[in-house]
Structures are given as structure tokens and as C-alpha cells.
Input
Amino acid sequence: MIELRQVWKVFLNGRREVVALRGVSLSVRRGETVAVVGPSGSGKSTLLNLIGGLDRPSRGRILLEGRNLAELDDDELALVRREKIGFVFQFFHLLPTLTCVENVALPLHLRGWSRRSAEARARELLALVGLGERLDHLPEELSGGERQRVAIARALAANPPVLLADEPTGNLDTRTGAEILTLLADLHTRLGTTMLIVTHDAQVARACARVVTLRDGQIVGDSSIQGP
Output
């Protein structure tokens, strides 16, 4: 499903090179739930951004369903992000002037769905994440946990095979974070989506079937049992 082969990412900070990833190789099977953990600055978010096509590797190959993302042009990469990947971020990134339904429907409008079809799909997803009675609320009228539920519904709008989450519970209190974790586990059971979750939260990591540990831009631990 996802394969990284000797991936490096180097940033320029003035005249100084900062190596964020150092020859990372990783395979993720379809339907896996993988937690990516490690100290701040270890390369976790960089890894997620590369897999999601938000950035390009300095060298190496990133394969998604057999396609090398590093070889795609900007338009092709944008299409992959739109069709194949859902993103969930720590700070939600909802548009404040749009209702819940409108926020979730937005990526479908960008794909050419009619307003009626997009909003019907948005209502279905909001009901799935437990917000069927909050359809017309604005983000400022919601709690943090409710906003994250909207963000998850939006990420799943186009039924992508891959969900990438960067600290999805990091801006939430402990109880609300646990609720979001339960929701993600339930959605995985129902939809079979491949999930990669960057987290500092040990509870989130324990809920995943596999834990990959990064340090200084390298994989130093992988708790899964590797297949043949």
C-alpha cells in the first residue's frame, strides 16, 4: 500500500543543512493502523508530509499503491492527495465561516460533486462521527472534540484509502482525546482505512496495531511482526 525506500529529506536553514530524515525505509500494508512516535524533532511530521504528498523527498522513493510520488508533477500530486489521502491535523483547520456540513462537503465540491450530493455525503459522515445534530453549527459553536470530529469527517469525505493524522488528540483534554481515539478505531473497523498517526500520546500509540519509532530522522524501532 505504502512503501518508502531510502528516503532522505534535507532542509536548508540559511547556509546550514538540516537533515530531517536519513535513509528511511518503511512498508505499510493495506488496512494497517500505524503509530509514528519519537521525540520532538525526530522527523515524524516530515515523514507524514512526505507520505501525504505535501512535500517531496530530497532522495529516495515513496510509493503509494505502486506510484512513485517523487516522480509526479504538481498537478498529479494534487490529484493523488485529493483522491487517495485524508488529512487530520492537531488544530482542525476548519473554515470558520462555513457550517459543519459545508466544511465536510468542501473537498467534494472541489472534486466536481453537485451541491446536493456533496451535502448529502457530508450529513451521512457527520452522523457517522456522532454529530448528526450539529450540521448547521459553525466551528466556533463547537467544542474541541466536536471540531476534531468534523475534521475527521472531512478527511473521509471522498472515502480515501489512506488517513494521515498529525497529533489528532494533541489539542484535546484527556477524556476528549480518548473519545477521538475510540472514534478512529471504530471508523477503521467499519471502513478498513489504512491509518498512520503521528502522536506523543502513549494511549494513542497502544491503540494501533503497529508502532514505528523515529529518532534523529531514522527508524529505531518497529513493534510489528513483519510478514514474509
Q: What stands out?
A: The mean pLDDT is 92. The first strand starts at residue 2 and ends at 13. The radius of gyration is 18 Å.
